[in-house]
């Protein structure tokens, strides 16, 4: 009887879990955090099963889970969060590894930060690109800082100590908040920095997302750090609508992100945050420590790719996907080819 139970349990586990390294599954995480689209929750065993059999089944699960965890991975599973820039970066890193002879599986568009993070911790994925500011605020929950090196060191140490995860070298991409103005407005008021803007902001209309009204690095922060107040604040839920309004002259200042493709495409001006209100959001691959040991060449490949990425490059890549409707995988492949990482 015990042999049959163990075999049945093993089949159940293998049917549910593809690459489990821990007893907690990705499905269990989503249920525990009550995401709107989460599954109904992990199954529980029939309480009518006698205690002895229940104990045997539980022991079998633990044994099998750890046995599966002990097996060396035969590939690196690359995940991403749920927006265009992440899709592109995931394909770039995955493609570079493949072209270096390292087997890869892609899990693109997992969801938001916490879902991607737990997928990495639980072993459902092996790596994904993350932003230092996001990790600081959402995972580490540390104090906000504008010191890029300090933020990187804080998240690097926290992830290594608590999750056995390694932050590789950051790319030159800092996708943080930015205040954007049109070329005419920049020329009229000689605007280069946010301090310059603070001198004339009372005559200008600001357009931003609804959350910007209350964030500490939004309107309250602009007032506290720069003494900045605007003639009017207009809310735009969608980022693209802000840029449309900026181009049409309906607003003179817009809140966006540093790697938005519209900035270069429309010749908008991103004002320098000279007093350091916005935290840094440098992107870097985060990878499991055990995977780095099993694939010692992966770190060098990923670091070399990160070294050729910056905000200008990311704006161009984002434009190819969002404006020109090219596939992220094709854009990534061409990028790798141009920079010597392709086949």
Automatic annotation (TrEMBL):
Pfam families: OpuAC. GO terms for molecular function: transmembrane transporter activity. InterPro entries: ABC_Gly_betaine_transp_sub-bd. Residues 74-338 form the ABC-type glycine betaine transport system substrate-binding domain. One of its GO terms (cellular component) is ATP-binding cassette (ABC) transporter complex. It comes from the Bacteria. This is Substrate-binding region of ABC-type glycine betaine transport system. It comes from Chelativorans sp. (strain BNC1).
């Amino acid at each position: 009887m015990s042999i049959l139970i163990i075999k049945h349990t093993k089949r159940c586990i293998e049917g549910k879990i593809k690459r489990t390294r821990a007893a907690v599954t990705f499905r269990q995480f989503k249920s525990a955090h009550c995401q709107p689209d989460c599954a109904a929750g992990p199954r529980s065993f029939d309480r009518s099963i006698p205690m002895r059999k229940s104990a045997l089944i539980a022991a079998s699960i633990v044994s099998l889970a750890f046995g599966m965890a002990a097996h060396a991975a035969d590939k690196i599973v690359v995940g991403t969060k749920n927006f265009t820039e992440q899709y592109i970066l995931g394909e770039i890193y995955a493609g570079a590894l493949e072209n270096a002879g390292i087997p890869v599986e892609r899990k693109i568009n997992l969801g938001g930060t916490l879902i991607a993070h737990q997928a990495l911790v639980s072993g459902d994925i092996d790596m994904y690109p993350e932003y230092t500011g996001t990790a600081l605020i959402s995972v580490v929950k540390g104090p906000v800082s504008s010191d890029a090196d300090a933020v990187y060191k804080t998240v690097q140490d926290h992830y290594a100590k608590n999750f056995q995860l390694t932050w590789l070298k950051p790319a030159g991409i800092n996708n943080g908040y930015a205040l954007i103005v049109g070329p005419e407005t920049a020329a009229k008021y000689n605007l280069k920095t946010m301090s310059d803007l603070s001198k004339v902001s009372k005559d200008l209309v600001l357009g931003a997302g609804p959350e910007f009204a209350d964030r500490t690095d939004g309107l309250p922060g602009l007032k506290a750090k720069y003494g900045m107040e605007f003639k009017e604040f207009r809310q735009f839920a969608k980022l693209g609508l802000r840029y449309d309004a900026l181009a049409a002259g309906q607003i003179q200042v817009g809140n966006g992100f540093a790697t938005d493709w519209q900035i270069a495409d429309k010749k908008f001006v991103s004002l320098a945050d000279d007093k350091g209100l916005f935290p840094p959001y440098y992107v870097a691959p985060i990878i499991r420590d055990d995977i780095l040991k099993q694939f010692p060449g992966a770190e060098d490949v990923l670091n070399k790719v990160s070294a050729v990425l910056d905000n200008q490059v990311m704006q161009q890549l984002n434009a190819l996907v969002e404006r020109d409707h090219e596939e992220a995988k094709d854009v990534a492949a061409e990028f790798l080819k141009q920079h010597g990482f392709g086949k």
